[in-house]
Structures are given as structure tokens and as C-alpha cells.
Write a structure and sequence with these properties.
The protein has 373 residues and is mostly beta strands. The chain has a domain of 148 residues: YVTN repeat-like/Quinoprotein amine dehydrogenase (Methylamine Dehydrogenase, Chain H, 7 Propeller), CATH 2.130.10. 6% of the residues lie in helices and 51% in strands. It has 1 helix and 28 strands. The strands form 7 sheets. Strands 3-2-1-28 form a 4-stranded antiparallel beta sheet, with no helix packed on it. Strands 4-5-6-7 form a 4-stranded antiparallel beta sheet, with no helix packed on it. The longest helix has 23 residues. The radius of gyration is 24 Å and the shape is globular.
């Protein structure tokens, strides 16, 4: 008995240590997983894809697949309202549609669906006032709608029909491929692969219509096939990625006039196989530009110098086929690439000083075509 009493303090200390260890580890493993940066993936609903999927990019660059959040047909491009409450998706079909969803903790809740104004919509964007623009590829036009504060879309307000053609087989008719609101101005820039030009307009808020700007168009190099564009942070330089001739073009803005300054190839000099470009992004510090090659299956990396001139830094393999879309993470530390034809998402760490990319990991994703953080 005396021996037990003698050992009691030691036993008590051991019990306290055991209790503290278990208390600090009582949360189940699933609760201790990193939250990461949430992003959504739009897909073509084929090869087992059913709609829009949700993922998480962890602090180490790895990707967690959360799963399907809504079933919808061919949500090939996504965007979010400025308050991050609503997500918009096009339905790329013959009868083009644009759909609004409320972003909830568990997924996406359907709010409304309206015609996009043309066939096969492939791009959608929204400004702070809630105006929504949709680029309809086969329709060769841009549709205008408005998102209300309740997350519901208005009827189709206007359609801007493009006219003309280019010089290649892919440019037999207008093919609106993207449309953007210029930063800090009321200018809208439509990018048409078919007519081989940029078109400039603005919204008449009284009539709820699209009206042409004084400079209505800017022709690109013959056969270029402009697809997407990116704005430099200084707001004076615009870059287009040209799908058909695999180049990036610099466009300068001077007193509301736009001029095509120069173009540079996205491919290595010794690459002679077929290639089409798809997406383009600029780092937030304005030092580096990235463009995706489908065929060479790479991300072309450029440094941005004086007067906006681009210099090739190098190429990084996308570890898959058909990098249709990619996105910089909100902190710009990573890039995530959607390889449409090999059904995978690939993440890379980005060096802010050199612009170069380092492969981290990949996960399965069925027919991914758009990444939205």
C-alpha cells in the first residue's frame, strides 16, 4: 500500500501527459486537412464528365478533388460575380445558354437560365454593375444580359453581330471567341477568330444596348486567328493569344486608340508540327506572360520588358494533351493547367523572379476546359 502511494505522483503525471496528447489529436484526420484555395472546373460533358467540378489547391501546390457540384451540359467557360456570390456558366450547344448559380458552402444552387444570343457560347464575363457578356462562337456574335442582385439573369438585352471573314479555312465566317470589359473604362473588347480582328464597343445603360466605339475594329496579322486577351496592370498594353498562327501580339492603347505593335511566336524554332494556341495570362506584378500551346503541349513563358516587348524565357511541358485553359492561383505562386484530351489537371510552382514553372502534381479530371478560382 505504501509503495502504491509512493508511486501515485508519477502515475498522475503520466496520465496527464497521455490526456494532453489525445486531447491535441482528438480531431479526426478529415477535419485537419488543409482548406486550400477553392477552384471550379468547367468541362465538356463527355468521357464521364457530368458538369462543373470543385477542387482545392493546397498551400503546397497539391490538388484535392472535392467532386461534382452541379450537373449541366457543356459548361465550357465560367466566371464569378464581383462579390463572389454567384457563378455563371455557358452551355456550349447549338441552342446556346448562360446559367447563374448561387455559390453555397456545399456546392452550386441553380438560380436562372437564359439564351446566350447565339450558337455554341464559349466565353462569359461580368462587370461590377452586373452586365454579362457572352461570346457565341458559331453564332459569331456577343450577347448582352444583366445579373440582378438576387442572382437571376435578365432576358437577352442585345446581340452584337460580327460581320466578315478571314483568310484561312477556320475563318470562313465570324467566330467570337472571347469578350472582355476593359479595366477602368466603359470599353468592351470582343475577340473574333473568324473575322481576324478585335471589335470595340460600349454599353448604352439607358437603352441597355451595345454601341460601337469611335474606333470600331483593329485588324490582326492575316491568318492570326485571335482567341483570348490579357490586360497588363499598367492598363496601356493588351496582349492577344492568336490560335491559328501560334503567336502573342502586343497592342498599345494611346488616347483611346488601339494599335498593333508586334507579335512573337509561342513555339520553339525547331518545332514544325501542328499547333494551336488557347489561353493567356499575365502575372499580377506585370513581369511575366504565359500562353498555352496545344500540339507542342506546353506553357510558353515570356518576360515583359520596356514598352511591353516580350522576350521568350522558355517552355514548360503541360504533362498532358490539349492545354485548353490554365489559371494562376490568387497568390500567383502556382499555375494549374487543364489538359482537355488527357483528362488531367496539372499544378506547377511559379518562380516570381524568373517566371519559370516547376511541376508539382496532377489529378484526374474528365474533359476539363476551364479553371476558375
Amino acid at each position: 500500500m505504501n509503495k502504491i502511494l509512493y508511486l501515485f505522483p508519477t502515475i498522475l503525471i503520466v496520465l496527464i501527459i497521455v490526456f494532453l496528447v489525445f486531447a491535441n489529436n482528438e480531431a479526426p484526420p478529415s477535419k485537419m486537412k488543409q482548406e486550400g484555395k477553392i477552384f471550379y472546373v468547367g468541362t465538356y460533358t463527355q468521357n464521364n464528365s457530368e458538369g462543373i467540378y470543385k477542387y482545392s489547391l493546397l498551400d503546397n501546390g497539391h490538388i484535392d478533388a472535392i467532386g461534382l457540384v452541379v450537373k449541366t451540359e457543356n459548361p465550357s467557360f465560367l466566371t464569378k460575380s464581383s462579390d463572389n456570390k454567384y457563378l455563371l456558366a455557358v452551355s456550349e450547344a447549338q441552342e446556346g445558354l448562360v446559367t447563374s448559380f448561387e455559390i453555397t458552402k456545399d456546392g452550386l444552387e441553380f438560380m436562372s437560365e437564359k439564351p446566350s444570343g447565339g450558337a455554341h457560347p464559349c466565353f462569359v464575363t461580368i462587370n461590377k454593375e452586373g452586365y454579362v457578356l457572352v461570346a457565341n462562337y458559331t453564332g459569331g456574335n456577343v450577347g448582352l444580359l444583366k445579373l440582378g442582385p438576387n442572382g437571376k439573369l435578365s432576358k437577352l438585352l442585345d446581340v452584337q453581330q460580327h460581320i466578315g471573314s478571314g483568310t484561312t479555312e477556320r475563318q470562313e465566317a465570324p467566330h467570337a471567341h472571347s469578350v472582355r470589359f476593359e479595366k477602368n473604362s466603359n470599353t468592351i473588347i470582343s475577340v473574333d477568330l473568324g473575322t481576324n480582328e478585335l471589335l470595340f464597343s460600349a454599353i448604352d445603360s439607358v437603352q441597355q444596348k451595345l454601341k460601337p466605339s469611335t474606333q470600331h475594329t483593329l485588324k490582326m496579322v492575316a491568318g492570326a486567328g485571335p482567341r483570348h486577351l490579357a490586360f497588363h496592370p499598367n492598363e496601356n498594353w493588351i496582349y492577344t493569344v492568336n490560335e491559328l498562327n501560334s503567336t502573342v501580339s502586343l497592342i498599345t492603347k494611346q488616347q483611346n486608340n488601339y494599335m498593333l505593335e508586334s507579335s512573337i511566336s509561342t513555339l520553339p524554332e525547331n518545332f514544325t508540327q501542328e499547333n494551336t494556341c488557347a489561353d493567356i495570362h499575365i502575372s499580377d506584378d506585370g513581369k511575366f506572360l504565359y500562353a498555352s500551346n496545344r500540339g507542342h503541349n506546353s506553357i510558353a513563358i515570356f518576360s515583359i520588358g520596356k514598352e511591353g516587348k516580350l522576350s521568350l524565357v522558355g517552355h514548360e511541358s503541360t504533362r498532358g494533351n490539349g492545354p485548353r485553359n490554365f489559371s494562376l492561383s490568387p497568390d500567383n505562386n502556382f499555375i494549374v493547367v487543364a489538359n482537355q484530351h488527357t483528362n488531367n489537371l496539372v499544378s506547377f510552382m511559379r518562380n516570381a523572379n524568373t517566371g519559370k514553372l516547376t511541376y508539382i502534381t496532377e489529378v484526374k479530371a474528365y474533359a476539363p476546359v476551364c479553371i476558375l478560382f
